[in-house]
Amino acid sequence: MESLQDEKQREVLMRFFKTGPGEYGYGDRFLGLKVPQTREVVKAAKDTPLDEIPLLLLSEWHEVRLCGFLILVNQFERLATKRFQKDADAVRKRDDIVTMYLQYATQANNWDLVDLSAPKILGHWLLLPTRLGNGTDDYKREVLDGLAQSESLWHKRISMVCTWKTSQQGDPSWCLRYAEMHLHHPHDLMHKAVGWMLREMGKRVSMDLLREFLRQHVHEMPRTMLRYAIEKMSETERKEWMNYEQK
Questions:
Q1: What whole-number distance in Å separates Cα of residue 178 and Cα of residue 199?
Q2: Per-residue pLDDT, 139
Q3: Quick count: other Cβ atoms within 10 Å of Cβ 131?
Q4: CB-CB contact of 13 with 30 (8 Å)
């Protein structure tokens, strides 16, 4: 990956991911690789032993950390196909991946690292058999609650964005729980994440559920969050909600 460095692209990425003083990505370092280039490396290295992946996750380079997380995604998804969902060995290996993901979640320290990994690892795990914590939904909620209550912006975003997968599979409860929990978060990146997940929940599960959530919380929702949440509604209804919010 270091051999693919591109100075011009590096400068573009540093601006795009807000790495300047006082910005959310301050201090992050980039090689200057585009995501398709990183995915090519992932494809070639998809069978990297699990105990070697922390070498990638602990890298100073953003793209190398992304590579590590995407290898975890690739390995998890192969173990989560229908024929492996209840297989004892696959369950154990998936749990090992989830454990590693949680151990190194701090390394997912920008929105792309979170968004490209959390739904497909942690979100998918919520829907599958597990031996962690005796395999209960209560334990899964404890894990997500721990992330949601962390001081880390990125841990909080993981807890929200991972609900994309559960909503895709028809379960709105995770999205609604963490949307309410993060309703008053001060950062714009969380406003976008919550609104985005609410929009996906409405699209995938029930627009009426989304409307009910909005009726309860529209007066306290940040404007960006509301705008993201109602994107799939008609123009007329969007205007009604935006005007309602201003009353």
A1: 14
A2: 96
A3: 11
A4: yes
